[in-house]
## 1
Amino acid sequence: MLPLELILAIVVPIVGLALAGYNASSVLRIQPEKKELTEINMLIAEGGKTFLMREYKTILPTGVVLTILIWVAYYVIFHSGLMAGLAALSFALGAIGSAVAGYLGMYVTTRSAAKTAWMGRNGMGPALSTSFKAGTVMGLSLASIALLIVTILYMAYSSILPTPLWAEALAPVAFGASLISLFIRVAGGIYTKAADWGADIVGKVEAGIPEDDPRNPGVIADNVGDNVGDCAGMASDVYESFVVVLAGALLLAAVFKLAPSLVRLSIMLATLTLIGTLVGVQVVRGEVKGKDLAAAAMGKLNLALYTTIIVAAILVAIYSFIAFPLMEAVAIFVADLLGMITAIVVLFATEYFTHYTFPPVRNIAYQAVLSASNVIVAGYSYGLLSAIPTIFMVVAALGISYVLGSMFIPPYGIEGGIFGTAVASVGLLSLAGIVISLDSYGPVSDNANGLVEMTGMDEVRDVTDPLDAIGNTFKATTKGYAIASAGLAALILFIGFIYEVVERMGIPLVKAFGELMVIDPRIIIGALIGVALVYFFSSRTLAAVGRAAGELVEEIRRQFRTKRILELWPQEKPDYNRAIDIVTRHALKNFLVPGLSAVVVPVAVGLALGWIGLVGTIFGVILAGFPRALLMANAGGAWDNAKKYIEIEGITIETPSGKQTFGKKSEPHKNAVVGDVVGDPFKDTTGPSLNPLIKVVNTVSIVFAPVIAMISLINPAAAPLIMHLVSILMA
């Protein structure tokens, strides 16, 4: 008979998928009576579908090649067709699961903007409920599919393979998820900002038309980008982290030869938190009342998050104290709770540094009185500062959970401590369902507000404007969550890689740590290569936005010139599909070099410098990529909201002639716009793209760890291939 943990881990995700299906159905059956609303929304939906389908076709050859390589590598190392087949299957299922979750969510969210706009006629409550339900389809699908796939693979593999072989066969599921995330996050980020830049440069700046004017050929591509980057991109990123943490925790438990109850612990904790999510999403319903409707709506969404955490914490406490001895239960509960608290701290820290109700963004806005360069410097300064609270919270969570684990979780010591940190990481990532539900709500409300403007539904602006503003807040804050989750997921895999290599090489753990000397040239060289990879990746993704945007600018200018849309509207309509196609092609084209570098570099380092050199590279990527992602995401968000603060509230300063207020279209506003333009690729392309980079480097390393271990055994004291080449040259 199956243990209760595994039964629940099958039943609860199925319930989650059922609720996602019900919410999708309830949203999609809303039929707006305004024909123009539906027509424009379907252009966005078809654009999103086109992008994903083309992206999946681009990924497919790479996925097939990597599947074959994994099969070959595992067959050579383990001399087992079964191990090779299961490893290849894990990789394929990880990729397919991520692709399916992304598609399901995108299908609903891209079709929900018109529904939200139409329900806005009935007030804030119906509009909020509609947009949030659409977001829950992505959140619940993501969490449920991830948990279901990992659970089924664990059940199947552990029943036919001994420990830790089943964990090694399961590990490639994380690499599969990482591959899809890398493509969607990076290519989607390039698409998002290229479309935004291109549409704004020609539309707002050159033609002087509103932001969401339907006469602009790039406006639909821009709306598609909102969903591609902030919905599918974020979802694939967090899905990947969730799968990585679950697979990493299982791998560590197997390598450490922990008790079966501890092996299944990560699955059980994720299941209990998913139950909390199923409860939490139910609170966003009914009327929204109060003098400040925006604050009331924000309160309901925050209540969904808090309800999830409270219910999950109670369930985890009950389970821990029933299933484990007292002090072991305390360690497990506190570590899991620290993970969830980390999520709250990260969300609030991000909001503090990126929302205009707090001092940092207001200070940046007042710098706009002086010059655009002051705006850039102030925003960058606050971006640097914003990384510190998240780093300290992650350090505290990992440190406390390590101490508790080392003292109270068998086998105690280093292994117990490291497993404690894995529990904290599971606590953070288990909130993926509710966090992505809140994040995916953002693009729906954003597109709804755009549709209202494009179709002249001014009577619902008092509903859609605040919903859009709330959505922008959640889109900004959830980026911090995604970055923190990427850092923790990477650390789990980093530790797992070390343990798997030393286990395969037969090196005692104490000796292995003794070999990892900071002064070892291989570690220093590897770390510098890792830092260089982060900088190369950042450079290429930033440059890609400019190139893709340039192509769109030329296309919009061409259509304005040849079709005379501005003069002949509405008889002459833009070719939206051509604009979407141009941005899609260039986003995918410009992604290939940085994307492939994330896969090729760690393998090359492992072959050239051995496992010790690769440890340095992984460490360098984490240390350089994690804080840099926080810097870029938060600085970009701060610049964006500094501009919005000037637009919404204005800034007032004392002058020799008295007080003077600056608002939209003033000189300070123009200076703030410069910061916003610089910040867009920071927060929506390069910053978020570093998340999958960090994880891909780790997942590639752990998948090919057996190969790297075998090669390192050739000459464990030196860099195998380099030494071989040197010997040839000397001869």
## 2
Amino acid sequence: MPNKPLDLIPLTSLKGVGPSLEKKFIRLGIHNLQDLLFHLPVRYEDRTKLNTISSVKLGDHAQICGEIVSSNILYGRRRSLQCLLQDSTGLIFIRFFHFNATQKESLIPGKKIFCYGEVRRGSKGFEIYHPEYKEIQNLDSILMESTLTPIYPTTEGIQQNRLRGLIKQGLEMLHESDGITDLIPIEISKRYELCNLTEAVKVLHNPPTDLELNMLDYGLNPGQKRLAFEELLAHRLCMRKSRIDVAQDSAAACKVNKELSSKFLKQLPFRLTNSQKSVLKDITEDLVKPTPMLRLLQGDVGSGKTVVAALASLQAISNGFQVALMAPTEILAEQHFQNFSQWYTPIELTVGWLSGKVKGPARQKILKDLKSGTCQLLIGTHALFQQEVNYRKLGLIIIDEQHRFGVHQRLYLRNKAAFANLHPHQLIMTATPIPRSLAMSAYADLDTSVIKELPPGRFPINTVIISNQKRREVIDRIRAACIGGNQVYWVCTLIEESETLECQAAEATAQNLVKQLPDIKIGLIHGRMRSEEKNKIMADFKKGTIQLLVATTVIEVGVDVPNASLMIVENAERLGLAQLHQLRGRIGRGNNKSHCILLYQAPLSRNSKLRLSVLRDSSDGFYIAEKDLELRGPGQVLGTKQAGLMAFKVADLQRDAQLLDDVKVSSEIIFQNHLEHIDPLIQRWLSHKEEYVNV
């Protein structure tokens, strides 16, 4: 068995692992012995020393042994089992909020135990909640740990002790084998002084006590860096391979129609910024090539991405091809439809609209126009790529707010659009600035363009942080703004990821505001409303019929309301910086100076104060995104936990950002000289995941 490749050894080969436990491991992304050995600790604890009860301090992770003096079940808000533990120096409580009958019967006065946990303040003195413990016969016969104790990511039904025991079995099998195959070429290992992979895995699971705990906690140990490097390299190779595959496809080469572009630009009430012209040059050059464009267009909220997309569409349409623009919500899609119709109708181009609510004869007409080629640009939601929708010659796909769409949606979209062995060009837009480290990892297969300046006339938004205790003053400010002819957003958020609860909170807030502001016309919009209802509310707000709009974060991606100059975000401390910045961008679109009030529930944690102050002091979306990444991690910043874009086992994009340039160089070396290493590396790190590539 040990001589087999580790990724071919099933978990059931380990003692104590049956089908039921195997399913629980799969929830952790662990499918085989190799996955188990790559399941690294999140932190370590020093359990090589024994603490006396009298020596422990608040916040210590202490290891103590003693005799149970008393044991009682306490009834309050939560039932708990509390035991009083004594050694020769003092007394301490241990408490279990989750316990069973066996524990209750075994943890009785006179029983001697050995336990470990964090010291907290209780009502009657120091307590340790849910300590790891074991019963002992003799206080003098304690065998202390000889290495630092690893603490692993786990899931329901898999306890730390059990996980450690199984990993110990895995390490014994590793010892009997030839080790883990090193897939990084020797020249790269030498160049970057990478340590041996097998030794790295052994040390990280059983670190000797002379290893610095801080180095391990901060991911700076050479073993951690070795595995993080390989994982980042595998992701990079996967992205690069995808890009090479796309480059081998054929696409429609679209020449620039200067006459049509000139007509379009002349009718605009504004001039393009230099930054818009620069990204447009990138896109134009891509579209002329007979290979598919795959470009990410980043631009802060209000930077003018839509007009760039309109000019890119003209280039495809003037060459006889159709364009599809997909947005994540009907509200946003409808706004695009209105903008493009306003721009395209004067130059005699046809714009169509398709969403779930378009039914009957209207739907049949748009489907017919698409198939015949009469409809040159189709705008809508994911309905654009339903089975019944057929294009005559689709040459360009534009995806707005791409992180709202899953990988499979984009793949289906690309495949559906292919015709005559030609693949569509793709322009992917986002108003969420992406930090460099994320871009290098998540979007390595994309060319990137950034609109770095706002159009002239856009004022920076004044942002203030105010305690909820001053809510009365905020309401007075809303009244003054509405009387002055301006419009206001009030955004409700909840800490729970529950759309239902968030909607309930918005409804309650709207009712209270109606009572406090009887002369103000107040509207309500949330995610559980029907599309028709939401669209009507947003239309009324845009017309000015509604003065104050109470909303959930559904308006993060929403319509432009130039008259909206004040936004209140309730419980702002519960949102990420990137999302707050996106919400804030809903105002400041007119000629009036705009203000954003971040309303927080006191007291604020140090981390929350830091985050909100970043938003108050900066309007630079990229700086804000970098800070968001630093404080919350990549999954939260890009919504990747929901969208399934990427997830790392070992690497941390913020912590390991300094590795990314070396990883990039290494990936090029492998593509040039070591092609045989590409698939094994991808297989090792991404075999049980979705294809995390931007197709």
## 3
Amino acid sequence: MINPTRRRLARLVLPVLLLFFVTIGIALYQTVSQVNALDAQRARAAMAVALDGLMASLADYAHDNAAWDDAARAVYAPAPDTRFIATTWGEATGEHVYADAFMIVDASGAVRSAYRDGLATAPALSPELRRTLHVLRTRALHSGQGAAALVRRDGWITLVGVAPVRPTSRALDGLVPAAGPSIIAFQRDLTARDAARIGTSLQLPGVSFAARPHGATSAPVRDVEGRVIAGVTWAPTYTGSIALGRALPVILIAGVLYLIAAGFAFNRGYASLRQLGWQAMADSLSKLPNRRALRWEMVRRADMKADIGLAIVDLDGFKRVNDSFGHETGDQLIRAVALILKQAAGNEAMAVRLSGDEFALLAHGPDAHDTIERVSQRLLAILTQPVMAFKRPVQVGASIGIVAARLGEISPSEAMRRADTAMYEAKKSGKMRIVWYCPELERDQTEVARLTAELRNAIEHRELVAMYQPMIDSRTGEVRAVEALLRWPSIEHGEISTREFISVADQAGLTVSIGALVLSQAAIDAAKWPDVRLSINLSRGQLRSPGFVEVVARQMAEAGVDPSRIDFELRETLFVENPDFAEEVARELRLLGVGLVLDNFGAGHASFATLDLAQFSKVKIDSTLVARAPSDERALVLLQSCVSYAHVHGARVVAQGVETFAQAELMRVAGCDEIQGWTYGRPIQADDVTALLSATKRPGVQDISCHNGAETKEKMPV
């Protein structure tokens, strides 16, 4: 007979034991499931990164082949160099190393040359391929780099990479047709071999391409518009199950020891997965996470439907540093900026180097909107101070575009594109600023593209005209000089703001063409006015263009103008940001015999000690200082100091932006030699200048405001 006490004990212990083993079973099941799910999640994210890497590689290959002077000559020649095209690109498709097919597509979408498997073909573009090429062309023109996407073709998953054919030398800019550049497009069919290579790199077995994704061990393949066109699958690895099998002997010996071993195996497996996923995710130069790491993180956040704030950061002035001080200084600057980004990000955001001088910041969480703006503002504040590179203080800024979004509602790629769009708007609108993405920016970019095309046409048909604003002797009232200013009286839209079209010209690389047009017209007009000097503004693009001084000398000779009657205006900022280059330019221009004018003197960019005024025949006082002087005692003292400093160095002083007679009188008393502004006349046409100079000159104010001029109060130089 069983002892009742034992029976009660058994009834108590057995349920406890059963609960213990059930708990262990549930814990084991959950552990295995979580490890297997984590493994599948890691594999999906890694697969997305691998596909992005294939596209980035083909995009870079297309860009390397398209940004090439020889390519531009071959493609844009009146009779395209078919031999060059065949040997350089077409025949290479027969080797199937980088691409299986190649084509050249002009701005209208017509295929001008095509090869597949090393042989010339005449392909009929499918609607999907034609649509893909159109979208990639737009992206490539927008970014200035190559672009790539995946497309389905005849049952194959095909990589398509494109880039616009453009010369690297500015002297060849005229080769590109006005309608827009052609693109070269490379196609590479993804095969079972490519799938095997991906599997090897990711340590995934049985990788293959399928008609569609299915199950946890698959990932979607999306086209350029984000539609699923295929899938890529692999065999499950069951990392958790393997770990359980290894720990099973321990489980049979003791349940408690098994729990400890299982926890250890889980932690070790998780660490291994993290290590595998983050391999090759760091930028070698900056030591920051790279583009792949950012993509990985955004894909992970997309699975969580997370709110993110993404900022694209593009350095202002980096190319100038590379050109002026060399690539070693540029590399040192990248490393210094990387440390600044980490400082600004702190524990609130992820700092990333994307490529070249482009970085990113990523914040997540419910307050991601506020966090990313706070971090971006902090970054701009730090960059107001010079950055040290090779013990050299270098001044750089940043243009920042920001987007706030919920991943899952939009893709990581779309979030990047939107932030990039906002960044370009920040750079266009003045740099060293933050711009939030909004749909209106897309329409603005469409307008910029339209205006760029119209501007190219206006330059070609010489619709841009030079107008002239007099500079009046402050004591005699005589016209001593005229300044050439550019105007665009558009046939379709009326007169377009100079600030607007000059901004467009800067982005499109048209400032050199515009400057040459103004210089040519102004030289012809100046020949009619032997008693006055002609003042012309020079852009950075003109100064950096090859053979600029020789072009100036030739145009002066053709117009019959003595170079000694010409003044070239150089901005004060040029001598602050790049003093060595500025001094060399000034020396070459003085040897030509022209006069030099320092523009915007007193704007606060430089101290007197940093500027050698002996090389300038004139200085022009900044218009903001002129406007402040009547009501601001400190501004008046600074203006008088500028005048005295200039006179000590033998330079005449011009007060610009004078809008009232009171300002004019104050400028005369302060010692300014010449006065320029609305008080003495708006910009006028060349014939009006001739009439003005022919009229009887009398002391005092000359009213020339009745002439047709630009309806703007601010000086807008070429």
